[in-house]
Amino acid sequence: MIAGRQPPGRAAYTLVELLIVVTVLGILASIVVPALSSPSVLGLPAAARALAGDLRLASGLAVQYNTTYAVRFDSSTHSYELVHTGAASPPPLVNPSAPAGTPAGQYVVKIGDLAGTGQRPEGVRLLGVRLAAAGTSVTQISYGPQGGTGPGRAENTEIWLVGGSANRAHYARLTVSWLTGQVDIDLPGSKPAGW
Question: Which of 30, 54, 113, 125 is the most buried (most CB within 10 A)?
Answer without folding.
Answer: 125
